[in-house]
Amino acid sequence: MKTTIIGAGAMGGLFGGLLAEAGEDVWLFDVWAEHVGEMTRSGLHIEREGVVRSIPVRAASDPSQIRPAELVLLFVKSTQTRAAALVAREMAGPRGLFLTLQNGLGNGDTIAEVVDPSRVMAGTTAHGATLLGPGRIRHAGVGPTRIGMWAGGDPLHAQRVAATLTGAGIETEAVEDVRSVVWDKLLVNVGINAITALTGIRNGQLLDLEATKELVRAAVDEAAAVANAAGVAVRQNPVDHVFQVAKATGGNRSSMGQDVDHRRSTEIGAINGAVVREGRKHGVETPVNQALAALVETLQVHF
Protein backbone atom coordinates (compact mmCIF):
# COMPACT_ATOMS: atom_id res chain seq x y z
CA MET A 1 0.00 0.00 0.00
CA LYS A 2 1.51 3.34 -1.05
CA THR A 3 1.68 5.33 2.17
CA THR A 4 2.69 8.85 3.18
CA ILE A 5 3.31 9.94 6.77
CA ILE A 6 2.59 13.63 7.51
CA GLY A 7 4.52 14.64 10.60
CA ALA A 8 7.64 12.47 10.77
CA GLY A 9 8.53 13.23 14.38
CA ALA A 10 8.66 10.59 17.10
CA MET A 11 5.49 8.62 16.32
CA GLY A 12 5.31 9.42 12.62
CA GLY A 13 8.95 8.50 12.24
CA LEU A 14 8.42 5.25 14.13
CA PHE A 15 5.49 4.15 11.98
CA GLY A 16 7.20 5.26 8.79
CA GLY A 17 10.43 3.52 9.74
CA LEU A 18 8.70 0.24 10.61
CA LEU A 19 6.71 0.31 7.38
CA ALA A 20 9.86 0.99 5.35
CA GLU A 21 11.73 -1.75 7.19
CA ALA A 22 8.96 -4.19 6.24
CA GLY A 23 9.35 -3.28 2.57
CA GLU A 24 6.29 -1.06 2.27
CA ASP A 25 6.21 1.81 -0.23
CA VAL A 26 6.30 4.77 2.19
CA TRP A 27 7.32 8.44 2.22
CA LEU A 28 7.86 10.62 5.28
CA PHE A 29 6.87 14.28 5.06
CA ASP A 30 7.97 16.89 7.59
CA VAL A 31 8.61 20.62 7.51
CA TRP A 32 11.77 20.28 9.65
CA ALA A 33 14.40 20.44 6.92
CA GLU A 34 17.30 19.32 9.13
CA HIS A 35 15.40 16.22 10.22
CA VAL A 36 14.42 15.38 6.63
CA GLY A 37 17.98 15.94 5.42
CA GLU A 38 19.46 13.64 8.06
CA MET A 39 16.97 10.88 7.29
CA THR A 40 17.67 11.20 3.57
CA ARG A 41 21.44 11.06 4.03
CA SER A 42 21.83 8.51 6.80
CA GLY A 43 18.45 6.84 7.28
CA LEU A 44 16.22 6.92 10.32
CA HIS A 45 17.99 5.75 13.47
CA ILE A 46 15.65 3.93 15.86
CA GLU A 47 16.85 3.09 19.36
CA ARG A 48 15.08 0.25 21.16
CA GLU A 49 16.29 -1.08 24.53
CA GLY A 50 19.80 0.22 23.95
CA VAL A 51 20.13 -1.16 20.42
CA VAL A 52 20.19 1.28 17.49
CA ARG A 53 19.36 0.33 13.94
CA SER A 54 19.39 2.52 10.83
CA ILE A 55 16.52 2.20 8.36
CA PRO A 56 16.75 3.73 4.88
CA VAL A 57 13.69 5.92 4.32
CA ARG A 58 12.41 8.34 1.70
CA ALA A 59 11.71 11.74 3.21
CA ALA A 60 10.80 15.18 1.88
CA SER A 61 9.82 18.63 3.09
CA ASP A 62 8.30 19.57 -0.29
CA PRO A 63 4.92 17.92 -0.92
CA SER A 64 5.44 18.05 -4.68
CA GLN A 65 8.27 15.52 -4.34
CA ILE A 66 5.88 12.85 -3.06
CA ARG A 67 3.76 10.70 -5.38
CA PRO A 68 0.02 10.18 -4.76
CA ALA A 69 -0.65 7.85 -1.84
CA GLU A 70 -3.28 5.21 -1.15
CA LEU A 71 -3.01 5.96 2.57
CA VAL A 72 -2.01 9.16 4.37
CA LEU A 73 -1.25 8.92 8.10
CA LEU A 74 -1.40 12.15 10.10
CA PHE A 75 0.88 12.43 13.13
CA VAL A 76 1.08 16.20 13.57
CA LYS A 77 0.10 18.08 16.72
CA SER A 78 -3.64 18.68 16.99
CA THR A 79 -3.12 22.42 16.52
CA GLN A 80 -1.79 21.64 13.03
CA THR A 81 -4.48 19.16 11.96
CA ARG A 82 -6.40 21.38 9.55
CA ALA A 83 -3.26 22.53 7.73
CA ALA A 84 -2.02 18.94 7.55
CA ALA A 85 -5.39 17.75 6.23
CA LEU A 86 -5.18 20.25 3.38
CA VAL A 87 -1.73 18.89 2.48
CA ALA A 88 -3.00 15.32 2.85
CA ARG A 89 -5.84 16.00 0.43
CA GLU A 90 -3.32 16.95 -2.24
CA MET A 91 -1.11 13.95 -1.49
CA ALA A 92 -3.86 11.33 -1.63
CA GLY A 93 -4.90 9.64 -4.82
CA PRO A 94 -8.52 9.74 -6.03
CA ARG A 95 -9.48 6.93 -3.65
CA GLY A 96 -6.85 7.61 -1.00
CA LEU A 97 -7.57 6.93 2.65
CA PHE A 98 -6.75 9.12 5.66
CA LEU A 99 -5.85 7.89 9.13
CA THR A 100 -5.26 9.94 12.27
CA LEU A 101 -3.58 8.39 15.30
CA GLN A 102 -3.12 11.78 16.96
CA ASN A 103 -3.76 12.48 20.62
CA GLY A 104 -6.90 14.21 21.75
CA LEU A 105 -10.40 14.82 20.53
CA GLY A 106 -11.56 16.51 17.34
CA ASN A 107 -8.90 15.48 14.84
CA GLY A 108 -11.15 13.09 12.94
CA ASP A 109 -13.87 15.73 12.61
CA THR A 110 -11.38 18.34 11.44
CA ILE A 111 -9.98 16.05 8.74
CA ALA A 112 -13.50 15.06 7.66
CA GLU A 113 -14.29 18.73 7.05
CA VAL A 114 -11.47 18.91 4.49
CA VAL A 115 -11.66 15.53 2.71
CA ASP A 116 -14.36 12.96 1.90
CA PRO A 117 -15.59 11.84 5.35
CA SER A 118 -16.18 8.28 4.12
CA ARG A 119 -12.42 7.90 3.60
CA VAL A 120 -11.40 9.08 7.09
CA MET A 121 -10.21 6.66 9.75
CA ALA A 122 -9.20 7.36 13.33
CA GLY A 123 -7.69 5.35 16.11
CA THR A 124 -5.17 5.07 18.90
CA THR A 125 -1.84 3.36 19.44
CA ALA A 126 -0.10 2.21 22.57
CA HIS A 127 3.33 2.44 20.95
CA GLY A 128 5.53 5.10 22.48
CA ALA A 129 8.38 7.05 20.92
CA THR A 130 10.63 10.01 21.71
CA LEU A 131 12.37 12.27 19.21
CA LEU A 132 16.05 12.41 20.20
CA GLY A 133 17.28 14.72 17.43
CA PRO A 134 17.39 15.01 13.64
CA GLY A 135 17.01 11.54 12.19
CA ARG A 136 16.97 9.84 15.62
CA ILE A 137 14.10 8.47 17.69
CA ARG A 138 13.71 6.13 20.64
CA HIS A 139 11.06 3.40 20.46
CA ALA A 140 9.99 3.59 24.07
CA GLY A 141 7.09 1.16 24.25
CA VAL A 142 5.05 -1.40 22.33
CA GLY A 143 1.31 -1.99 22.47
CA PRO A 144 -1.81 -2.51 20.37
CA THR A 145 -3.15 -0.12 17.76
CA ARG A 146 -6.88 0.09 17.05
CA ILE A 147 -8.49 1.88 14.11
CA GLY A 148 -11.91 2.29 12.52
CA MET A 149 -13.92 4.36 10.09
CA TRP A 150 -14.69 7.76 11.62
CA ALA A 151 -17.77 8.91 9.71
CA GLY A 152 -19.15 5.88 7.95
CA GLY A 153 -17.51 4.38 4.90
CA ASP A 154 -16.58 0.84 4.02
CA PRO A 155 -15.16 -1.03 7.05
CA LEU A 156 -13.04 -3.07 4.65
CA HIS A 157 -10.84 0.02 4.31
CA ALA A 158 -9.93 -0.15 7.99
CA GLN A 159 -9.36 -3.90 7.77
CA ARG A 160 -6.99 -3.45 4.85
CA VAL A 161 -4.99 -0.75 6.62
CA ALA A 162 -4.90 -2.85 9.82
CA ALA A 163 -3.46 -5.76 7.85
CA THR A 164 -0.77 -3.52 6.32
CA LEU A 165 0.29 -2.14 9.71
CA THR A 166 0.24 -5.57 11.33
CA GLY A 167 2.45 -6.88 8.55
CA ALA A 168 4.99 -4.22 9.51
CA GLY A 169 5.06 -5.38 13.13
CA ILE A 170 2.51 -2.80 14.32
CA GLU A 171 -0.19 -5.05 15.77
CA THR A 172 -3.44 -3.40 14.65
CA GLU A 173 -7.11 -4.26 15.05
CA ALA A 174 -9.97 -2.81 13.00
CA VAL A 175 -12.94 -1.95 15.26
CA GLU A 176 -16.50 -0.79 14.66
CA ASP A 177 -16.90 1.69 17.53
CA VAL A 178 -13.75 3.76 17.13
CA ARG A 179 -15.18 6.73 19.04
CA SER A 180 -15.11 4.71 22.26
CA VAL A 181 -11.49 3.83 21.50
CA VAL A 182 -10.56 7.48 21.03
CA TRP A 183 -12.34 8.49 24.24
CA ASP A 184 -10.62 5.71 26.20
CA LYS A 185 -7.25 7.08 25.11
CA LEU A 186 -8.45 10.63 25.87
CA LEU A 187 -9.24 9.64 29.46
CA VAL A 188 -5.65 8.43 29.88
CA ASN A 189 -4.26 11.67 28.47
CA VAL A 190 -6.65 13.71 30.64
CA GLY A 191 -5.36 11.99 33.75
CA ILE A 192 -1.65 12.11 32.99
CA ASN A 193 -0.56 14.81 30.56
CA ALA A 194 -1.52 18.16 32.07
CA ILE A 195 -0.53 17.23 35.62
CA THR A 196 2.90 15.93 34.59
CA ALA A 197 3.41 18.94 32.32
CA LEU A 198 2.65 21.39 35.12
CA THR A 199 4.65 19.67 37.83
CA GLY A 200 7.71 18.41 35.93
CA ILE A 201 7.24 14.83 37.16
CA ARG A 202 7.31 11.55 35.25
CA ASN A 203 4.21 9.43 34.71
CA GLY A 204 4.85 7.02 37.53
CA GLN A 205 5.30 9.80 40.06
CA LEU A 206 1.59 10.58 39.77
CA LEU A 207 1.09 7.62 42.09
CA ASP A 208 3.51 8.75 44.80
CA LEU A 209 1.17 11.11 46.61
CA GLU A 210 -2.47 10.58 47.52
CA ALA A 211 -3.31 14.21 46.77
CA THR A 212 -1.97 13.80 43.22
CA LYS A 213 -3.94 10.59 42.74
CA GLU A 214 -7.09 12.41 43.85
CA LEU A 215 -6.44 15.11 41.25
CA VAL A 216 -6.04 12.46 38.55
CA ARG A 217 -9.24 10.77 39.73
CA ALA A 218 -11.23 14.00 39.65
CA ALA A 219 -10.08 14.92 36.13
CA VAL A 220 -10.81 11.45 34.74
CA ASP A 221 -14.19 11.15 36.47
CA GLU A 222 -15.25 14.46 34.91
CA ALA A 223 -14.17 13.30 31.45
CA ALA A 224 -15.96 9.96 31.85
CA ALA A 225 -19.14 11.80 32.86
CA VAL A 226 -18.90 13.92 29.72
CA ALA A 227 -18.41 10.80 27.56
CA ASN A 228 -21.48 9.18 29.11
CA ALA A 229 -23.54 12.33 28.52
CA ALA A 230 -22.38 12.31 24.89
CA GLY A 231 -23.52 8.71 24.50
CA VAL A 232 -20.00 7.30 24.19
CA ALA A 233 -19.34 4.00 25.94
CA VAL A 234 -16.04 4.04 27.82
CA ARG A 235 -14.43 1.29 29.88
CA GLN A 236 -15.47 0.45 33.40
CA ASN A 237 -13.22 1.87 36.13
CA PRO A 238 -11.32 4.32 33.87
CA VAL A 239 -9.40 5.78 36.82
CA ASP A 240 -7.90 2.39 37.64
CA HIS A 241 -6.87 2.06 34.00
CA VAL A 242 -5.14 5.45 34.09
CA PHE A 243 -3.24 4.41 37.22
CA GLN A 244 -2.19 1.19 35.46
CA VAL A 245 -0.92 3.14 32.46
CA ALA A 246 0.96 5.58 34.69
CA LYS A 247 2.65 2.65 36.45
CA ALA A 248 3.46 0.82 33.20
CA THR A 249 5.01 3.98 31.72
CA GLY A 250 6.45 5.10 35.03
CA GLY A 251 9.81 6.27 33.74
CA ASN A 252 8.35 8.17 30.79
CA ARG A 253 7.71 11.88 30.55
CA SER A 254 4.33 12.50 28.89
CA SER A 255 4.25 14.06 25.44
CA MET A 256 2.78 17.23 26.92
CA GLY A 257 5.50 17.22 29.55
CA GLN A 258 8.10 17.01 26.81
CA ASP A 259 6.44 19.90 24.97
CA VAL A 260 6.64 22.06 28.10
CA ASP A 261 10.24 21.00 28.71
CA HIS A 262 11.13 22.19 25.20
CA ARG A 263 8.90 25.29 25.43
CA ARG A 264 6.64 24.12 22.61
CA SER A 265 2.90 24.65 22.25
CA THR A 266 0.96 21.75 23.73
CA GLU A 267 -2.18 19.86 22.75
CA ILE A 268 -4.06 20.96 25.85
CA GLY A 269 -6.97 22.25 23.76
CA ALA A 270 -7.59 18.79 22.29
CA ILE A 271 -7.31 17.01 25.65
CA ASN A 272 -8.49 18.69 28.89
CA GLY A 273 -9.76 21.66 26.90
CA ALA A 274 -11.84 19.32 24.74
CA VAL A 275 -13.43 17.83 27.86
CA VAL A 276 -14.44 21.34 28.96
CA ARG A 277 -15.97 22.17 25.57
CA GLU A 278 -17.85 18.87 25.33
CA GLY A 279 -19.01 19.27 28.92
CA ARG A 280 -20.58 22.62 28.10
CA LYS A 281 -22.41 21.05 25.15
CA HIS A 282 -23.91 18.36 27.34
CA GLY A 283 -24.45 20.29 30.56
CA VAL A 284 -21.70 18.58 32.57
CA GLU A 285 -19.55 20.66 34.92
CA THR A 286 -15.79 20.15 34.49
CA PRO A 287 -14.04 22.48 36.97
CA VAL A 288 -10.90 20.36 37.41
CA ASN A 289 -10.28 20.02 33.68
CA GLN A 290 -11.03 23.71 33.23
CA ALA A 291 -8.40 24.59 35.84
CA LEU A 292 -5.79 22.24 34.36
CA ALA A 293 -6.40 23.58 30.85
CA ALA A 294 -6.19 27.19 32.03
CA LEU A 295 -2.93 26.55 33.88
CA VAL A 296 -1.26 24.89 30.89
CA GLU A 297 -2.51 27.62 28.54
CA THR A 298 -1.13 30.27 30.92
CA LEU A 299 2.20 28.49 31.08
CA GLN A 300 2.63 28.06 27.34
CA VAL A 301 1.68 31.62 26.44
CA HIS A 302 4.87 32.71 28.23
CA PHE A 303 7.19 30.37 26.33
Can you give me a brief rundown of this structure?
The chain has eleven helices and twelve strands.
Features:
alpha/beta, eight-stranded mixed beta sheet
Averaged pLDDT:
96
Q: Mind telling me the CATH class of the largest domain?
A: Alpha Beta
Low-confidence segments? none
Q: What CATH architecture of the largest domain would you give?
A: 3-Layer(aba) Sandwich
Strand content: 15-25%
Indicate the multimeric state: single chain
Please specify the SSE layout and strand pairing.
Elements: E1 3-6, H1 10-21, E2 26-29, H2 33-42, E3 44-48, E4 51-55, E5 58-60, E6 69-74, H3 81-91, E7 92-100, H4 107-112, E8 120-125, E9 128-133, E10 136-141, E11 145-149, H5 155-167, E12 172-174, H6 178-199, H7 210-229, H8 238-248, H9 255-261, H10 272-282, H11 287-300
Parallel strand pairs: 1-2, 1-6, 2-5, 3-10, 6-7, 7-8, 11-12
Antiparallel strand pairs: 3-4, 8-11, 9-10
